[in-house]
């Protein structure tokens, strides 16, 4: 739809504002005290989160409903995100995140539903707000839509139902495969850190150094790192190390063995703290919101984990701070190879883990685990198998704290077996990554095909036009005449009741 005057539309079509072809009811949220989950009152829908494949799915009911939608009204999301649609499964109450759209007589429900899905981006572009975009009732009512003749609307809707149903079935099959790959990835990682993946390998190997001996070397290296860090701090402050400063080192605690399952021969239970140092991120006061220079120290936020190129290693994005700025702000640098993950908020549920490619700082919504060599690659695999959502405290704002990570038990194999595990897992994950990328490409292509089909439909190129169809302009005249007739009847009824009509009620 490129011309607002409709001159580029097919013969018999017309351009109309939504309010000319449908009744629009903007939602309004009733008091939260009227909500319940026991089915009292009407189903209450607040936004896209309750949308299903076609019909919204109630989670909450409202005992004192305000704005009402009728069965099969189109529910249009008007607040963050703008544009998604569903149908009302029954008479229901709608909150301010939704509008109910009810087609006028002669406008096909399915046609209008498909039209919203075609022009969702147009509506979104009319939204305001940066953090939470929304559209007003006036914007929704003024949305321009191409209206086909009534008979052609039905033909278009039938064709779209058939084509998009087949496309949806194909996408659903791809999504099922993607879900299975996700399960397979989890199964590979679980088998790796439990010893099942290398069970056959162990049968054919001579005795190797037990993991307990490896642990001793790791603990020695861990202490060496601590001592080097303390010496650096003394030097930065221009101080000599005090007497007995090494005695302040705290040995990490061994794991609580209660309830832990037996391990393969040569393995041993350790804690995360024995294999790594755990550090919470920080957001120092005065931290700038934009980079202060093109190079220097990187400082990452949770959102930077989603930057392209950061799928495994954190390389891109983040704020760039000069070394002087980072030092004056007190930015705590985390070594390259540190594992970072969200520690606060909804991002925990995404289960994202990344590794720092370079020494960098992280904000207070991130936590870092810095492995001690030579167990760093194996600990990374163990973290990939860890479900972060199961660690959060379950509060309104989920959070992972250091005590949720530090004492967690890790099954540790010998160094030789670690190397074998890493090699096998990397090979299998590489295959999974390739398949997932292929599936993502196919799903993206399907989405592009969907939009192409919708573009054809609403430019008159999906089904043939019939010159015998009544033009849409006549349909719009009839709808307008019916609206004026109802207004006159309402005005007359109120005059009979002895009340003057308002300006809005006058025909």
Please, could you describe this protein's structure?
This protein is of the alpha+beta class and 507 residues long. Helices cover 38% and strands 16% of the residues. The chain is built from 13 helices and 21 strands. A five-stranded mixed sheet has the order 3-5-4-9-6, with no helix packed on it. It has a five-stranded mixed sheet with strand order 13-20-17-18-15. α5 packs across α10 and α5 runs antiparallel to α12. The chain is elongated and about 100 Å long. The chain starts with 13 loop residues before the first strand and ends in an 11-residue tail after the last helix. 28% of the residues are buried.
Which structural traits does this protein have?
507 residues; alpha+beta; 5-stranded mixed β-sheet; 13 helices; 38% helix; disordered N terminus
Total count of strands: 21
Please give the radius of gyration in angstroms. 31 Å
Low-pLDDT sequence parts: 1-6
Which structural class do you get from the secondary structure elements? alpha+beta
Helical content, roughly? 25-40%
For the largest beta-sheet, the strand count, sense and barrel status come to:
5 strands, mixed
């Amino acid at each position: 739809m490129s011309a607002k005057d409709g001159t580029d539309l097919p013969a018999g079509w017309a351009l109309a504002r939504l309010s000319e072809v449908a009744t629009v009811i903007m939602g309004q949220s009733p008091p939260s005290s009227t909500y319940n989950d026991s089915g009292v009152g009407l189903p209450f829908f607040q936004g896209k989160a309750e949308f299903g494949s076609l019909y919204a799915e109630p989670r909450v009911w409202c005992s004192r409903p305000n704005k009402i939608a009728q069965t099969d009204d189109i529910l249009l999301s008007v607040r963050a995100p703008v544009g998604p649609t569903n149908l009302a499964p029954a008479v229901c109450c709608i909150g301010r995140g939704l509008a109910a759209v009810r087609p006028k007589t002669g406008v096909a429900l399915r046609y209008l539903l498909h039209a919203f899905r075609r022009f969702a981006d147009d509506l979104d572009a009319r939204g305001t707000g940066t953090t939470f975009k929304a559209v007003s009732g006036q914007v929704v009512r003024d949305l321009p839509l191409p209206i086909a003749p009534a008979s052609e609307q039905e033909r278009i809707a039938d064709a779209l139902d058939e084509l998009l149903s087949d496309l949806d079935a194909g996408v659903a099959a791809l999504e099922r495969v993607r879900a299975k790959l996700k399960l397979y990835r989890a199964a590979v990682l679980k088998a790796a850190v439990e010893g099942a993946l290398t069970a056959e390998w162990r049968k054919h190997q001579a005795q190797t150094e037990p993991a307990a001996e490896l642990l001793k070397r790791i603990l020695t290296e861990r202490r060496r790192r601590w001592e080097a860090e303390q010496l650096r701090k003394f030097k930065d402050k221009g101080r000599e190390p005090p007497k007995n400063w090494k005695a302040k080192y705290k040995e990490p605690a061994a794991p609580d063995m209660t309830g832990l399952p037996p391990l393969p021969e040569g393995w041993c239970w350790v804690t995360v703290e024995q294999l790594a140092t755990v550090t919470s991120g920080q957001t120092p006061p005065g931290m700038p919101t934009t980079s202060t220079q093109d190079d220097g120290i990187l400082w990452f936020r949770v959102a930077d984990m989603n930057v392209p190129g950061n799928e495994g290693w954190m390389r891109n994005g983040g704020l760039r701070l000069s070394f002087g700025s980072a030092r004056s702000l007190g930015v705590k640098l985390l070594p390259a190879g540190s594992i970072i993950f969200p520690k606060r908020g909804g991002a925990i549920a995404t289960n994202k883990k990344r590794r720092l490619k370079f020494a960098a700082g992280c904000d207070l919504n991130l936590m870092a685990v810095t492995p001690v060599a030579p167990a760093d690659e194996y600990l990374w695999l163990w973290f990939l198998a860890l479900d972060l959502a199961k660690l959060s405290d379950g509060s309104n704002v989920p959070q992972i704290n250091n005590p949720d990570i530090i004492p967690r038990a890790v099954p540790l194999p010998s160094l030789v077996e670690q190397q074998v595990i890493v090699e096998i897992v990397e090979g299998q994950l590489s295959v999974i990554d390739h398949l997932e990328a292929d599936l993502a490409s196919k799903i993206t292509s399907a989405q592009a095909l969907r939009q192409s089909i919708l573009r054809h439909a609403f430019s008159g190129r999906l089904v043939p036009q019939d010159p015998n169809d009544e033009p849409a302009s006549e349909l719009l005249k009839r709808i307008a005449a019916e609206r004026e007739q109802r207004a006159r009847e309402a005005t007359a009824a109120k005059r009979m009741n002895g009340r003057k009509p308002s300006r809005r009620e006058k025909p």
